[in-house]
Design a protein that fits this description.
CATH superfamily: Amidase signature (AS) domain
Low-confidence stretches: 232-238
CATH class: Alpha Beta
Helix content: 25-40%
Mean pLDDT: 96
Structural class: alpha/beta
CATH architecture: Alpha-Beta Complex
Shape: globular
Radius of gyration: 20 Å
Length: 448
C-alpha cells in the first residue's frame, strides 16, 4: 500500500488502512513485534508484553472486520498503556516490587474506552515508581545513556522507537510533556477531567491527568478523543477533544511565555526557544511576548503543597506496611507531606482554584501560548528523569498542553515546543499546535 515500513505508520494512517482492507491488524502487529524484538533490549520500554496474546487479538480484529461488525475508530490498533493504569488480567505493577504480579480484576475506564474503540493492549509500558521520580529501566531511544524522562518513560520511548503508533500516559507535574520532548514525539495532556482517572493509581487526585503519545498532532487528537468520557462534552457545551483537526484559515494568535522558571533552562534551550518564536512570527503568526502575572511566582510552591500533601495521604498506609520497599525519594516525599496540615492543604487547593481562574483569564485572548517543554535536552543521567519545571503551572491549572518536536539540541537529542491554552478549548489548542508543527517542520519522529 505504500513504501514506508509498517512500524513507521501513524496511528490514523494505520487505522484507516485497516478499515479499507489494505492492511491487516495481524500484519501491523507482526511488524511492531519484530521491531520490538530488535530494539527492546536497548530501549527497555515494556514492563509486560505477551506477543502471542497480541497476535491473537490482532487476528480477532481482522475476523471482526471481515464479519461486517461495526468498527470503532481505533479498530485493530495496538497500544501501550502506562503501568500505573489498571488492565484486567494483565500485570499492573506501578513500577514497584510491592505490586509485582498484581492482576487487576477490571481495566481502567480509559482502557475500556480504548478497547471499545477497537484498540487492544500490546503491552504495559514502564513507569517510574508510582509515577514519581525514581526511574525505571527505560532508556532514551536517541541515546541510551540519557534519560527518556518520566514518569511516562516507557510510553514515550516506545512511540519514538516505532514499537507502537500510540501510547497512554499520565501527568501530575511534567510526566507526559517532558518525556515526549526528550524522546522527540508528540505528547498531549487534555484538559483535566476530559479523560477519566478511574482505574489509574492516584498520586495527587487534584493534579493527576491522563494523556497520549503519538508521532503527530492529528494522531494525538484521534487517540485522546477515543479515550474521552463522552458525558463530559455536555458539561462543557459540546466542547471536548476533536477526533480530527481542520486546517486553519488564519494563523493562530500566539503568546510566547518564558514563565518564572526561564532562568533554569539551558542557555542553548533558551536560544532555541527564541528562534522558534521568531520562526513562527515569520511564518505569519502574530506572537506577543508576555509574562505571567506576578502572582504566578508562587504557583510552583502551591503545586508542591498540593502534590506532596495529597501524595502523603495517598501513600501513608502503603508506607506504614512497606516502607523498606519504597524508594528513598518516595519515602522522603511522604515524610515531607506528613508535615502539611489539613488546613495548609486546603489553602493550597483553594490557591489552585484561584490560579486556574487567573490562568483562564490570561489565556482567553490567545489561540495558544508557546513555552518551553523542558529545561533542555534529556540529561545524560539514568538516575533521574529531568526537571518538570516548565510543566508545573499548566498542570496546576488543568489546562490542555501539547508538545511538538522542534529540532535537536547541541548533543543531537530532541527538543520540544509546548503549546498550551484555556481549559476546555482543546480543539483550539490542538489546531494551534498543528499549525506550529507544520511550520516548524521537524519531520523525524522515529529513531532510525
Amino acid at each position: 500500500m505504500n513504501s514506508i515500513p509498517l512500524h513507521c505508520m501513524g496511528l490514523r494512517e494505520a487505522a484507516q488502512a485497516i478499515r479499507r482492507g489494505e492492511l491487516s491488524s495481524d500484519e501491523l502487529t507482526r511488524a511492531l513485534l519484530a521491531r520490538i524484538e530488535r530494539h527492546e533490549s536497548t530501549v527497555r520500554a515494556f514492563q509486560w508484553m505477551d506477543p502471542q496474546r497480541a497476535l491473537d487479538l490482532a487476528r480477532r480484529a481482522d475476523r471482526q472486520l471481515k464479519s461486517g461488525d461495526q468498527l470503532g475508530p481505533l479498530h485493530g490498533i495496538p497500544l501501550g498503556i502506562k503501568d500505573i493504569i489498571a488492565t484486567q488480567d494483565i500485570p499492573t505493577t506501578m513500577g514497584s516490587p510491592i505490586y509485582a504480579g498484581h492482576l487487576p480484576a477490571q481495566s481502567a475506564a480509559l482502557v475500556q474506552r480504548a478497547e471499545a474503540a477497537g484498540a487492544f493492549v500490546l503491552g504495559k509500558t514502564v513507569t517510574t515508581e508510582f509515577a514519581y521520580f525514581t526511574p525505571g529501566k527505560t532508556r532514551n531511544p536517541w541515546n541510551p545513556a540519557h534519560t527518556p524522562g518520566g514518569s511516562s518513560s516507557g510510553s514515550a520511548a516506545a512511540v519514538a522507537m516505532g514499537f507502537l503508533p500510540g501510547a497512554v500516559g499520565t501527568q501530575t507535574n511534567g510526566s507526559m510533556i517532558r518525556p515526549a520532548a526528550f524522546c522527540g514525539v508528540v505528547g498531549y495532556k487534555p484538559t483535566a477531567g476530559f479523560i477519566a482517572l478511574a482505574g489509574v493509581h492516584p498520586f495527587s487526585p487534584s493534579l493527576d491527568q491522563p494523556g497520549v503519545f503519538t508521532r503527530s498532532v492529528s494522531d494525538a487528537a484521534l487517540l485522546a478523543a477515543a479515550l474521552m468520557e463522552r458525558e463530559d462534552t455536555d458539561a462543557v457545551s459540546g466542547e471536548g477533544i476533536p477526533d480530527d483537526i481542520a486546517p486553519r484559515v488564519h494563523p493562530p494568535r500566539l503568546a510566547a511565555v518564558r514563565s518564572p522558571v526561564w532562568h533554569l533552562a539551558d542557555p542553548q534551550a533558551q536560544e532555541h526557544f527564541l528562534k522558534m518564536v521568531a520562526h513562527l512570527r515569520s511564518a505569519g503568526a502574530p506572537v506577543e511576548e508576555l509574562e505571567l502575572p506576578p502572582s504566578f511566582k508562587d504557583a510552583h510552591a502551591v503545586h508542591r503543597t498540593v502534590m506532596v500533601g495529597e501524595g502523603a495521604r495517598i501513600f501513608a498506609d502503603l508506607q506504614g506496611r512497606d516502607r523498606a520497599r519504597l524508594s528513598p525519594r518516595l519515602n522522603a516525599l511522604i515524610d515531607e507531606g506528613r508535615s502539611i496540615s489539613d488546613a495548609d492543604l486546603s489553602r493550597g487547593l483553594e490557591k489552585q482554584r484561584e490560579f486556574a481562574g487567573e490562568l483562564d483569564a490570561f489565556l482567553k485572548d490567545f489561540d495558544g501560548v508557546v513555552t518551553p517543554s523542558a529545561l533542555g535536552e534529556a540529561p545524560a543521567d539514568l538516575t533521574q528523569t529531568g526537571d518538570p519545571a516548565f510543566c508545573t503551572i499548566w498542570s496546576l491549572g488543568g489546562v490542555p498542553a501539547v508538545t511538538i518536536p522542534a529540532g535537536r539540541g547541541v548533543t543531537g537529542l530532541p527538543l520540544g515546543l509546548q503549546i498550551v491554552g484555556p481549559r476546555r478549548a482543546d480543539g483550539q489548542v490542538l489546531s494551534a499546535a498543528l499549525w506550529c508543527d507544520e511550520r516548524i517542520g521537524w519531520g523525524q519522529r522515529i529513531v532510525d
